[in-house]
Amino acid sequence: MAEGHRSTLADEQFGQGLPEHSEAALREEAAAGDFRLAPHPTITRIGKPLLLIVMDGLGESKFHDEFNAVEQANTPTLDALKELAPRRWRMLKAHGTAVGLPTDADMGNSEVGHNALGAGQIVDQGAKCVDGALATGSLFKLDGWKWIEANAVAGTLHLIGLLSDGGVHSRYDQLTLLMEGAIQQGVKRIRLHVLSDGRDVNDNTAVAWVERLQGDVAALSQRLDVDVRIASGGGRMAVTMDRYESDWRVVQRGYYAHVLGEAPHRFKDPVQGVRELKKGNTVSDQYIEAWVVVGEDGESVGRVADGDAVVTFNFRADRMVEISQALEYPKFDKFDRKRWPDFRFAGIMQYDGDLLLPKHFLVPPPLIERASEQYVVGTGLRVFACSESQKIGHVTFFWNGNRSGYLDPKLEKFEEIPSDQGISFDKAPAMKAREIAAATKQALLSGKYDFVRCNFANPDMVGHTGNLKAAIEAVTVTDECVKVLLDAVDQAGGRFLVTADHGNAEEMSQRDKAGNPVIKDGKPVELTSHTLNPVLCAIGGPGLPGRGCCWQDDLPNAGLANVTATFLNLLGFEAPDFYKPTLITTDGE
Ligand SMILES: O=C(O)[C@@H](CO)OP(=O)(O)O
Ligand SMILES: [Mn+2]
Ligand SMILES: [Mn+2]
Predict the structure, then answer these.
(1) What is the pTM of this model?
(2) Where among 317, 342, 363 does a domain terminate?
(3) What gap in Å lies between CA 326 and CA 332, rounded to an integer?
(4) DSSP designation for 576
(5) Domain termination site, one of 363, 381, 408
(6) ipTM of this model?
(7) For the chain, is the Cβ count within 10 Å smaller at the N or the C terminus?
(8) Is 468 near ligand 1, meaning CB less than 6 Å away?
(9) Residues with catalytic annotation?
């Protein structure tokens, strides 16, 4: 059924112009050799590894002042890439329509960035698919809605997700359209379980967001004569939105607050309550502890009951997988659920197409067909991918077009370095970069792999804390680790490509329209989000062909999706012709 959903909607409304294939068919084809790459005419295979590094959240800003953590950091390796090989580096677009987001005002993010890097194509992303399904009303006609409809109408509809207009995981306008649409379908009672952001939008805006929602909910309730209330919440990094099993306690807090109605903070009015929790702004919006709204009787107003319906309204997958498991799996041992009511659950998207999780979803997810790894393993190349827990799925799941697990366990090895748990990453800004470098170096020198890729999480994760000093340290350590790996490429006689998935650390202060840092109470106001900035792409290594490679001159608007054909060339192969064009040529140098 899931496949049927995907194909109908993908074809009719958001067609990618590529042939329809089910996952199973794709794998069969791979096995049958349909994914063999043709050798590149001039960049030959040398039997030495290609290294690809993603520096997560490291972009280039036009502001060259003290708030640019990338420029403030000590980066001799990255500087040398530019200075020593002027024709082997360039900048790439990493935001907006260049990576499949709805508009060029949308900042880049890891999901779309790694999807583009791995898939070589620009695919309409989840945000756009949900926009379309809400605009046409198809969302309420498909099987996902049908699955929850009777419960939603007869019981309570619970909506769980991130409260902001960041556009990375969710969007406020989609939440309100979803509510309105559900009410038109006959829903009378809605409970909202909302996570504060402070990461994709400015920090210390949590109160304003809850206040806005409270206002809109009051107006809606009155206008349409329905009972809608804010029921529970917390900060996204402390409650519900863990990813890649970094810390299940985060999900447990969410399940307890949203489903059981249990939380350390209980108050009658969510605006006043959150205002109290945010007093003096001593805690970031991202880390607000779990809270529930209680009625006169002291009981939670929004615990999930038998016969209710639950929808998670984040369209992005990584941070919804664990809560979906907690909501959906009959057998579940990550924490004690205490009570698992008999409700019906649908995600606004399916968050994992291989696990088919959740089973029911309101909007078909973007299917990314013919991702590069299918060709890479289809050609028999051996792959090593490494990161720490916070980003491991980025270089595997997102990279492989949202496929979880191995495409070919005989040819691929994914290595996860456990991330620190329970701390804000500015407390340990190196994160696990050195461990990632060590594991990746070992893979490069082992002779066991043709394609070795890794992701350094710390410019991004530390950038999100808003702590400038820590972000500078994070970038410095990243540069040091890039050096370790480029030295290993030298030793191995291989080739490399260094890039990033979007910006973050290069802008650590909010700016006014004139570009000046925003100052409040005598202090610069931190910027915790990603940016719209371009990212570096640099190639090199002793294994480059005799006459070398350099950039094509005619691709001024190239973006992350052009990297895919480029690294396939560096592996010694031609890219599929429907991929975005390669950035390199062997003419002219
Ligand atoms: O932390 C995350 O979930 C996002 C920001 O919302 O960052 P990234 O896209 O880099 O993973
Ligand atoms: Mn990222
Ligand atoms: Mn990020």
Answers:
(1) 0.89
(2) 363
(3) 7
(4) P
(5) 363
(6) 0.97
(7) N
(8) no
(9) 110
